[in-house]
Design a protein that fits this description.
Elements lengths: L3 H9 L5 H20 L15 H13 L6 H5 L9 H14 L5 H33 L6 H4 L3 H11 L16 H13 L7 H30 L1 H4 L1 H7 L1 H11 L2 H5 L3 H4 L28 H4 L6 H17 L1
Helix pairs in contact: 5-6, 5-10, 6-8, 6-10, 8-10, 10-13, 12-13, 12-17
């Protein structure tokens, strides 16, 4: 098994020949296929499970404590239950830290670490609610989950459509690409689904609101982490910027986990399942996750992007370890 030192040296060396580049491409192809085979939890594909077994045990205990309170959705997602103060207390802590100008660095680092842990729990609960909503709404529009696989976009589309049969007059352009909107409109006219009973529709809409609330909380946490990236990972931030650095670190589960990750896996962090709506797949950017959204990659000519992103991933792997 390769050690961290071996991975460090491997990332330091740039490919000198076509054979080495070919080998790196095969490794990235394998990482990409692994990501494609996994079901996306959010808008991104996580590299590894963020919570440990102890954390899962604590979550189960918290879920048992709050199982008799709140709505059905709140029983599924304990972070939204009024009896569970983890999310609300952390958001208050972030607001307090944002107002402090002389906060202790060790204290800020602890808040950042807790933020990364909490975003992992938010991802898990969003996935649980998404599955719950998807199962209920399949009676009305079973094809929609395949057309819109990402939880946030799915929740927004379901809220907009509701129990309507004719969706041609509904503007979904804010949530999905135009070609997907067209596919949804056509599919809705031929679906075998039936309208939901009022009580079931109410549960579906509550689930959609829960997904949106959790995502907004996650955005607030990411905003705070982005503002502190120069403190926690200055080298990585200098290369790819605070926004992308914060999101990559959040997916990896923290700076320690990111520093242990090989560059070929870092390259595909944040890869989305492309929603092409039946159109050609050649428009999709393969092997490019969040790193493909950096200023460096956006300014790189198309014929050099594959080589550039391999080099960028290698440099980011080095920067995360320094």
């Amino acid at each position: 098994m390769a050690t961290l030192a071996d991975a460090f040296l491997a990332d330091f060396d740039e490919p000198d020949s076509e054979e080495e580049e070919e080998q790196q491409a095969q490794e990235q192809e394998g990482a990409q296929q692994t990501a494609d085979n996994e079901e996306p939890l959010l808008d991104v594909l996580d590299y590894k499970d963020i919570d440990t077994l102890d954390d899962e045990t604590k979550d189960d205990e918290q879920r048992n404590e709050t199982s008799n309170t709140g709505t059905l959705v709140e029983k599924i997602a304990t972070l939204l239950n009024q009896e569970d103060k983890r999310l609300s207390d952390h958001m208050e802590l972030i607001e307090k830290m944002n107002k402090q100008t002389d906060a202790d660095k060790a204290e800020e680092y602890d808040v950042i670490v807790k933020s990364n842990e909490l975003t992992g729990k938010i991802d898990q609960e969003m996935f649980s609610i998404h599955k719950y909503v998807r199962d209920l709404y399949a009676t009305k529009f079973p094809e929609l989950s395949d057309l819109v696989p990402h939880p946030y976009e799915y929740a927004q589309v379901v809220k907009a459509i509701g129990n309507k049969h004719d969706v041609s007059g509904i503007d979904l352009g804010e949530f999905v690409p135009q070609n997907v909107q067209l596919t949804i409109t056509v599919t809705a006219t031929t679906t075998a689904g039936k309208p939901l009973p009022p009580e079931v529709l109410k549960q579906v809409l509550e689930g959609c609101e829960a997904i949106i609330d959790l995502l907004n909380a996650k955005k607030g946490i990411y905003t705070y982490v982005e503002s502190r990236m120069n403190l926690i990972a200055p080298n990585l931030t200098a290369i790819i910027g605070p926004e992308i650095a914060a999101r990559i670190m959040g997916i990896a589960g923290g700076l320690k986990e990111l520093s242990e990750m090989p560059s070929c896996n870092m390259q595909v962090l944040g890869v989305k399942r492309n929603i092409l709506g039946g159109f050609a797949s050649t428009v999709a950017n393969m092997h490019q996750g969040l790193l493909g959204q950096t200023d460096i990659m956006l300014s790189t000519p198309s014929d050099l992007k594959q080589r550039a992103i391999r080099l960028l991933a290698a440099k980011c792997a080095l920067a995360a370890r320094i």
